[in-house]
Write a structure and sequence with these properties.
With 159 residues, the chain is mainly α. The chain has five helices and no strands. Helix 1 runs antiparallel to helix 3.
Length: 159
């Protein structure tokens, strides 16, 4: 004897945000920040510092630096999407998402570039180890640009 059960499907909120928009926004923001690092911020950030976090430099490895930088940006974009998913109204408009992205970019700068990166590079014995804290106005501007592009792209793509 067969039994049929009626089910209804509906929209289920998992409060995770739109991870695809986070990845896309993170990649877009990473391109902008990467161009700033390539043409404005003095070397050897992309060429040596970023690859040496994983023992891949020296010697200078600009392509590897770009790949790692883009991967970091995509992962951080997913983190942004997860945070926005906790308060979905933040991602409902491009304007609020831009503001959230700018704030996120600055938080990422303080947590990762100012504090974590010097500790990490010291731990792996990198010759490109910056001081702790690693406070750089250009790095702050680059992370802010990353966050603004991430937030804008997220707001546009998630809606």
């Amino acid at each position: 004897m067969a039994t049929e059960t009626a089910t209804t499907t509906g929209e289920v909120s998992t409060a995770t945000g739109d991870w695809k928009a986070g990845v896309a926004g993170g990649l877009a923001g990473s391109v902008v920040f990467g161009l700033l690092m390539t043409y404005v911020i003095p070397a050897p950030l992309l060429e040596v510092v970023i690859p040496s976090m994983y023992g891949l430099a020296p010697p200078a490895a600009p392509f590897v630096g770009w790949v790692i930088h883009m991967a970091h940006g995509a992962v951080l974009g997913v983190g942004f999407a997860a945070l926005v998913g906790l308060k979905p109204s933040v991602g409902e408009s491009v304007g609020t998402s831009l503001g959230a992205g700018a704030a996120y970019g600055l938080v990422v700068w303080v947590a990762l570039a100012v504090i974590a990166m010097p500790i990490w590079l010291s731990a792996v014995g990198s010759p490109a180890n910056p001081p702790l804290p690693n406070i750089s106005a250009m790095s702050a501007v680059g992370h802010l640009a990353y966050g603004v592009v991430l937030g804008g792209a997220y707001g546009a793509l998630a809606n």
